[in-house]
Every structure is written in structure tokens, then in C-alpha cells.
């Protein structure tokens, strides 16, 4: 099982957090268009994506540290890591706007992660 995770996480692109950003933007747009059910469904889907990508990147860092650090310093793949910062900010905004969680819990923590990561 560990060999499988090591093999599969070796080439994980760091820019996949852009999917969280795009889903969050669509969710917020649906919220402002007064389609709250679809906005909330996308919010929960976004939480799933965010946690999944965090776990996969954590596994990649654990099992393929050299490849992870190589991508971090690469001119082509390195900027993809900034999508983690933006994705956490967008997800925090979703919780602040859709769930009305401005200063408590998950929303505040995501915004702090976003600010601290930058």
C-alpha cells in the first residue's frame, strides 16, 4: 500500500488547488444569484476537494520529499503552490459569506492559513 501511495503521489501537480478556487468562485456566484442550495452543495464539495488535496500533498511530501522540493524550486511548477494560498482564501470566503461564519471556526482559520502561507 505504501509503495502504491508513493508511486501515485510522485507526480502530483501542485496547481490542482486551482480546482478549489474555481469551484469556490462558482459557488459564490450561485450564492449571489440567489441559488443557495447549489452554492452550499459546491461548498461541501469544495471542502472535500481541499482536504483531499491537502492529504495527497502531505503524502507526497512524506513519501517523495525530493520530488516535492524539486517542484517547489522549479520555475514551471513552483508557482502552482500559490494556488494553495488562494484556495484557502476562497474557501474561507465561502464559509464567511455562505455560512455567515465571519470570525469563528473554519473560515477564520482558512484566512489565517492563507495570510500566513503567503
In short:
With 118 residues, this protein is an all-alpha fold. The protein contains six helices and no strands.
Detailed description of the structure:
With 118 residues, the protein is mostly helical. Helices cover 76% and strands 0% of the residues. Helix 1 packs across helix 3, helix 3 packs across helix 4 and helix 5 packs antiparallel against helix 6. It is elongated, with a radius of gyration of 15 Å. The N and C termini lie far apart (34 Å).
Please give the structural blueprint.
Layout lengths: L1 H8 L8 H15 L3 H28 L1 H9 L8 H17 L6 H13 L1
Provide keyphrases for this structure.
elongated; 118 residues; mainly alpha; 6 helices; single chain
Q: What does the oligomeric state look like here?
A: single chain
Strand/helix succession: HHHHHH
Uncertain spans, ≥5 residues at pLDDT below 50?
A: none
Structural class: mainly alpha
Mean pLDDT: 86
What's the story with the biggest beta sheet?
Answer: none
**Spatial separation of the terminal alpha carbons:** 34 Å
Please state the CA-atom Rg, rounded to the nearest Å.
15 Å
Helix percentage range: over 70%
- Shape descriptor reads elongated
Number of helices: 6
How large is the share of residues in beta strands? under 5%
- In total, the number of strands is 0
Amino acid at each position: 500500500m505504501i509503495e502504491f501511495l508513493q508511486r501515485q503521489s510522485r507526480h502530483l501537480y501542485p496547481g490542482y488547488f486551482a480546482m478549489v478556487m474555481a469551484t469556490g468562485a462558482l459557488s459564490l456566484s450561485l450564492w449571489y444569484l440567489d441559488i443557495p442550495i447549489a452554492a452550499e452543495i459546491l461548498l461541501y464539495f469544495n471542502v472535500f476537494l481541499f482536504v483531499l488535496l491537502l492529504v495527497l500533498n502531505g503524502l507526497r511530501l512524506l513519501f517523495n520529499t525530493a520530488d516535492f522540493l524539486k517542484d517547489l524550486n522549479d520555475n514551471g511548477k513552483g508557482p502552482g503552490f500559490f494556488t494553495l494560498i488562494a484556495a484557502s482564501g476562497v474557501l474561507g470566503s465561502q464559509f464567511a459569506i455562505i455560512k455567515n461564519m465571519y470570525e469563528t471556526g473554519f473560515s477564520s482559520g482558512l484566512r489565517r492559513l492563507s495570510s500566513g502561507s503567503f
